Amino acid sequence: MSHASARPIGRRRLSLAALALAAALSIVGCSPASDAAPEPADGNGVSIEHAHGTTVIPEKPKRIVTLGWMTADIVAALGENPVGVEKVWGAGESGFQPWFEDYVTEEYGETPALIEYTEDGPNYEAIKALKPDLILGLYTGLTDVEYQRLSEIAPTVPYLERPWDAGTWEDMTRTVGKAMWADERAEQAVTETTDLVASLAEEHPEFTGKSVVWGLSLTEGSTDLGVYLDYDPRVRITEALGFDSTSAMSTFYETAEGDNWYTGVSLERLNEVDADLFAAWAGTVAEAEYTVANKVVARWAPIAKGSYVFYAGEADASAISAPTVLSLQYILPTYVDDLAEALAGTPTIAGP
Predict the structure, then answer these.
(1) CA 107 – CA 123 distance, rounded (Å)
(2) Can you tell me the distance from the alpha carbon of 196 to that of 64, in angstroms, rounded to the nearest whole number?
(3) pLDDT digits (tens, 9 = 90+) for 145-197
(4) Contact 234/321 with Cβ under 8 angstroms?
(5) Which of these, 34, 46, 167, 314, is most buried using a 10 Å CB contact count?
(6) Percentages helix, strand, coil for the chain, rounded to the nearest 5?
(7) Taking Cα atoms as reference points, which of 200, 176, 167, 147 lies closest to residue 73?
(8) Helix extents (H) in the chain
(9) Rounded to whole angstroms, how far apart are CA atoms 167 and 76?
(10) Nearest-angstrom CA–CA distance, 202 and 222
(11) What is the number of other CB atoms lying within 10 angstroms of the CB of residue 321?
(12) Which keywords has UniProt assigned to this entry (predicted)?
């Protein structure tokens, strides 16, 4: 199975997803939004508290560098083309994720500078050369030392509470909006994307009440099947479409270690896990095929019924794993079609 090209949202054309859903659905950037900076209550700028302290952004930023996943999408959707974007997993040959590349090319006429990550952490020299007035890295693992060094270049906002945890896509959008002095536009983006999800759910009433497990493919020699907790964004977005998490979720939490958002289920106990559908991502198509061919997994109800969806392409995995107001436009129309077909007994293993 192959996917259609990225579905950008923009002022000059509607996304294919929105056209398929409702002509009246407004797209991020279509309806008028004030670009005027909000007046700070203290007159000293916008303040954002985070894991490494507090960052003050003294004026509406224009030259924004983004590090890690997700943030670049939000910055672009809220009205600024980043001057620099750190290369992340899931990027194509161009170094950019497809939905982001399509969006900024159409909206701004060019892609940002691509910042290569170094073995020693952020590429400080490359970042400094871009002369940013704001650095955003909400979905990163920036250490305190890295944060301090970046702050010497420009006001920097790292993760808010813990490494590699940006919270919900809604909250992340609002945080980036605050940092950009664009709260109103951020709230608009959240509302429009939530409306898109709700519209898709409404089109598929068969999802309601069906149980789902989101997980990983097996690798050779595996004795556990990896599964995600309902805190994970993959699970949350699937629930927003109408599904319920498996009744075994409480058991998943009992076996999860520390702050992990995933755990493993012994193959010996897999048939005890209730699920109408299994969704997963795989490193390769071969891994997905190996998983469903496993003698134990093949007898598990959703696999036996053909009610499964595997994504083996990095772009698809990234879009659903780290959802944003841009990546959801790209992946959701295909995703809901795949879920609907899987419930009807037609499985999907989607390659790159």
Answers:
(1) 27
(2) 28
(3) 999 999 999 999 999 999 988 789 999 999 999 999 999 999 999 999 999 99
(4) yes
(5) 46
(6) 40, 15, 45
(7) 176
(8) 16-21, 71-77, 98-108, 124-129, 144-151, 169-179, 183-203, 233-240, 249-255, 285-293, 301-304, 314-321, 327-343
(9) 19
(10) 38
(11) 22
(12) Signal, Transport
Cα–Cα distance for residue pair 104/109, rounded to 1 Å: 7
| pLDDT value at residue 43 | 54
**Closest by Cα among 281, 236, 273 to 252:** 273
pLDDT score recorded for residue 22: 25
DSSP secondary structure, 289-334, as one string: HHHHHSTTGGGSHHHHTT-EEEE-SHHHHHHHHS--TTHHHHHHHH
What number of helices (H) and strands (E) belong to the chain?
A: 13, 14
Please give the Cα distance from 243 to 246 (Å, whole number).
9
Q: How do residues 106-154 score in pLDDT, each as one tens digit?
A: 999 999 999 988 888 999 999 999 999 999 999 999 999 999 999 999 9
Q: H or E stretch including 48?
A: strand 46-50
